[in-house]
C-alpha cells in the first residue's frame, strides 16, 4: 500500500470502510487494492453484497457518525491514523496486513524508535514483577521503547519503569477507556509522557474478543516480545504466537517448574523461544538480528478488477476447503484448484457473505454463524 496523506473527506471514508461490519484488516486491504480507494470500495459495497448473495447489503457507518468519532477523538487530545499515512508506526505497517486505523493519544514520535514488548501474568509473583521492572528500565536506557498492554501485573510494572525513557500502552477498548481502573494514574502518566493506542473506536468498552486484536498490535509494534510469566493458557502465550507469526523474535524468562505462572514461559522455551534472564540477554539477541527481516507470508496479488464470471463450482470448492482451523491461503487455493488471486477474491466474497473470516498472515477460517 502506497504511503500518502489523506484529505479530510478521504479520512472519513477510510474510517467508514474500516468500521463496516464483516470487513476486517484483510478484506479492507483487498478492497482498497481492488478499487483503488476506500471511497470507491464503499461505492462498490452494494454490488459486492448482492453478488455474494447477502439477503441484506453491508451498510457502512454514515459520514456523520465517522465525523463525530473524529471530532470526539480530537477533543480528547488524540488522533486517528490511517495505515497509508506517513506517521503510521513503520514496523506495524509491515504487519500482513496492518490495522487500517489506529487511534493515538500522546507521543507519536515514539513510533520512530526501536521497540520491545514485555508481557506477562496479571497475577505476577513479586519476582516476576521485579524482573519486568528491571528489564523495562534497562532496555529503556538502552534506547528501546517498551510496549505492553496496561494490564495488572507484568504490564503495569513494565510501563511504570519506562515512562521516562518511552513506553506505549495498547488498549483493547478505546483510548478513553482506562482499564483496569486502578491504573488511572499510570494512564495519566502515559498520556502525558508516553503513548496510548487502540484499534477500537473512541468510546468503545473492551470485551473479551478485543484482547487478541490488542495482542497483535503489541507484538506488531515491537522487534521482539519478552514473556516474563505466563500460565499454560494465557493471553501472553497468544502474544507469543502472534509475534512468531509476524516474524518477530520471541523471548521468555524461565521459571520454577513448581510455579504454574512459569509453565507457559518454560513451554515457550521448549518450543524454541530464546531464553532470557536479563536485559543484556535480550539486547544481545536483538542486536544479533541485524536488519529486521519479517517472515510473514506475502499477501497475494489481489485482482484489481471485479470478476463477475467466477464459476459457482469454484466458490463451492473454496468454501469446502475451509475449516475452523486457520489455513494458509495457498493451501486453500491448492485444495480448491484455483489460483491464489482468484482464491483471495472468492474468500473476500465469502467474508462479505459471513461464511469465512480472513486473518492476518494470509490465513482463513470458516466463520461462526452471525448473530440474528
Can you characterise this structure?
The radius of gyration is 21 Å and the shape is globular. Helix content is 43%, strand content 13%. It is α/β, with parallel strands linked by helices. Helix 13 crosses helix 15 (340-353) and helix 14 (329-336) crosses helix 15. Among the domains are: 106-288, Rossmann fold (3-Layer(aba) Sandwich); 312-366, Orthogonal Bundle (Arc Repressor Mutant, subunit A), CATH 1.10.10.10.
Structure described in brief:
By secondary structure, the protein is of the alpha/beta class. The chain has helices spanning 8-18, 25-35, 38-52, 63-75, 90-93, 126-141, 154-161, 184-193, 211-220, 235-245, 263-270, 279-288, 312-321, 329-336, 340-353; strands at 78-82, 101-106, 115-119, 145-148, 167-171, 195-198, 224-227, 249-252, 274-275, 327-328, 356-359, 363-366.
| Weakly predicted, low-confidence segments | 291-306
The tally of helices reads 15
CATH architecture of the domain at 106-288: 3-Layer(aba) Sandwich
- Strand order, biggest sheet? 1-2-6-5-4-3-7-8-9
**Mean pLDDT, all residues:** 89
User: Biggest sheet, in brief?
Assistant: 9 strands, mixed
Q: What portion of the residues fall into strands of 2 or more residues? A: 5-15%
Total E-strand runs: 12
Q: What is the overall shape?
A: globular
User: What is the top-level CATH class of the domain at 106-288?
Assistant: Alpha Beta
- The Rg value, from CA coordinates, equals 21 Å
Order of helices and strands: HHHHEHEEHEHEHEHEHEHEHHEHHEE
What name does CATH use for the topology of the domain at 106-288? Rossmann fold
Q: Would you tell me the structural class of the helices and strands?
A: alpha/beta
Distance between the termini: 35 Å
Measured as a percent range, the helix fraction is: 40-55%
Amino acid at each position: 500500500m502506497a504511503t500518502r496523506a489523506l484529505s479530510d473527506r478521504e479520512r472519513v471514508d477510510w474510517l467508514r470502510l474500516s468500521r463496516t461490519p464483516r470487513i476486517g484488516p484483510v478484506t479492507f486491504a483487498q478492497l482498497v487494492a481492488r478499487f483503488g480507494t476506500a471511497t470507491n470500495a464503499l461505492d462498490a459495497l452494494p454490488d459486492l453484497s448482492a453478488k455474494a448473495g447477502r439477503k441484506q447489503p453491508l451498510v457502512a457507518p454514515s459520514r456523520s457518525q465517522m465525523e463525530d468519532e473524529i471530532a470526539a477523538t480530537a477533543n480528547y487530545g488524540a488522533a486517528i491514523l490511517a495505515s497509508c499515512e506517513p506517521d503510521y508506526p513503520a514496523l506495524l505497517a509491515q504487519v500482513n496486513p496492518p490495522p487500517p486505523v489506529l487511534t493515538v493519544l500522546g507521543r507519536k514520535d515514539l513510533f520512530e524508535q526501536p521497540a520491545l514488548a514485555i508481557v506477562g501474568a496479571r497475577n505476577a509473583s513479586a519476582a516476576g514483577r521485579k524482573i519486568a521492572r528491571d528489564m523495562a528500565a534497562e532496555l529503556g536506557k538502552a534506547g528501546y521503547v517498551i510496549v505492553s498492554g496496561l494490564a495488572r501485573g507484568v504490564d503495569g510494572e513494565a510501563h511504570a519503569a519506562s515512562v521516562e525513557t518511552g513506553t506505549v500502552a495498547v488498549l483493547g477498548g478505546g483510548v478513553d477507556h482506562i482499564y483496569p481502573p486502578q491504573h488511572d494514574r499510570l494512564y495519566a502518566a502515559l498520556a502525558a509522557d508516553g503513548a496510548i493506542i487502540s484499534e477500537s473506536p473512541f468510546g468503545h468498552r473492551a470485551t473479551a474478543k478485543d484482547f487478541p486484536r490488542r495482542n497483535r498490535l503489541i507484538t506488531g509494534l515491537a522487534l521482539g516480545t519478552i514473556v516474563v510469566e505466563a500460565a499454560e493458557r494465557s493471553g501472553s502465550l497468544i502474544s507469543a504466537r502472534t509475534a512468531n507469526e509476524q516474524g518477530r523474535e520471541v523471548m521468555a524468562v524461565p521459571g520454577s517448574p513448581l510455579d504454574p505462572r512459569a509453565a507457559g514461559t518454560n513451554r515457550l522455551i521448549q518450543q524454541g523461544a530464546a531464553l532470557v534472564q536479563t536485559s543484556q540477554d535480550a539486547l544481545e539477541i536483538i542486536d544479533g538480528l541485524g536488519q529486521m527481516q519479517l517472515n510473514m507470508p506475502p499477501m497475494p496479488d489481489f485482482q484489481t478488477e471485479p470478476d463477475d464470471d467466477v464459476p459457482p463450482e469454484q466458490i463451492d470448492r473454496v468454501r469446502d476447503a475451509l475449516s475452523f482451523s486457520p489455513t494458509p491461503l495457498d493451501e486453500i487455493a491448492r485444495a480448491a484448484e484455483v489460483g491464489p488471486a482468484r482464491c483471495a477474491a472468492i474468500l473476500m466474497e465469502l467474508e462479505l457473505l459471513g461464511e469465512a473470516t480472513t486473518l492476518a498472515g494470509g490465513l482463513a477460517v470458516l466463520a461462526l454463524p452471525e448473530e440474528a
